[in-house]
Design brief:
Layout (H helix, E strand, L loop, with lengths): L1 E5 H12 L13 E7 L2 E7 L3 E7 L2 E2 L4 E6 H10 L4 E7 L2 E6 L2 E6 L17 E5 H9 L16 E7 L2 E7 L3 E8 L1 E3 L10 E3 H10 L6 E6 L3 E6 L2 E6 L18 E6 H13 L8 E6 L2 E8 L3 E8 L7 E5 L1 H9 L6 E6 L6 E5 L3 E5 L7
Antiparallel strand pairs: 1-5, 1-7, 2-3, 2-6, 3-4, 4-18, 7-8, 8-9, 10-14, 10-16, 11-12, 11-15, 12-13, 13-26, 16-17, 17-18, 19-24, 20-21, 20-23, 21-22, 24-25, 25-26
Amino acid sequence: MQLICNRALFSTAFSLAASAVPTRTPKDVLRNVLMTVSADGVQLIGTDQEVAIRYRVNGVTTASAGEVLLPTQKISSILRELQCEEVELQVDDQTIVVKAANSRFRLSSEDPREFPPVPEFGEESYFRVPAPVFRQMIRRTSFATDTESTRYALGGLLLEFSEGTITLAATDSRRLAVTTASCETLGTPVIPARTTVVPTKAMTLLERSIDPQAEFVDIAVHENDVMMRSGPCTVYSRLVEGRFPRYRDVIPRSGNVNVRLTGGPFFSAVRQSLIVTDEESRGVDFHFSNSVLALSSQASAVGDSRIELPVEYDHDDIRITFDPKYVAEFLRVLAPETLVDLQLTDSDTAAVFRVEDSYTYVIMPLTQDR
């Protein structure tokens, strides 16, 4: 088997497929990326047996067919160091030869028949979401998951469908991110009866893989797994077991005060407030009074700070304490010109940040006697 590949395109595709390869596994075969060559083109496949990705590679010239396991670390290193435009791969039995300009590498390879099967997207009925919209939805929610929680459902994103609408929600029990968008159906997909929680790894892998030129993301949900396809990329994932919290119950319906903030200046002030914090005193006081938001922090081993931001505020004073990292992570995924509506009740009640009607972010305050 012989292939001539555009190095940049092949390197990008290989990097994405390698993102599904586990860093630690007792199964050595999973440390590889499977490359399949057929009349349908060249695909790179990586999996940890919970999450898998198929990526169709462009810029490949070949008259061959077959399969080969590419050792992830070695191939990644080679592609990273080469500067040439084209790379040639020759495969003979379980030996791989990589040639490029004045470089030549000879690597051993394992038996591709040992690689576990990875499903292909063959659905006739599925949900469809505009690709840029779904990519933004993932970015606006995935940071709020808790991948280290013993409550497994918190380590994934809730995926909900209703008539013409898709919702993503994520929480680590201290904050909640919820975003909605319109979606369409092709065929007659059935809205899942059980809770659909997709691992964070699968969602972030898809978000990274969505081509800027891609039009749609197609989503097919089954009882125990989900398939998501966008352009040359297909991501397969088993669903997370466990119950997702009743997230709608924790969103305050109304507050005493609504404050309009611009994302960019607000983000700058929050980043500054992070400078004088440490693990023991990570809280920052957000003090709203007399058309000013004052962010105050103090750490005994570092010092203290006060950052003021002009705001439209003519209500009674409210002082509420947040972990500034939680606020910063929300603002980081917004464009600087984005307008944010902040709903406040008092210093002990969850604050609600809203962007239009499609994005809601809830943060529980810290106790002020921390």
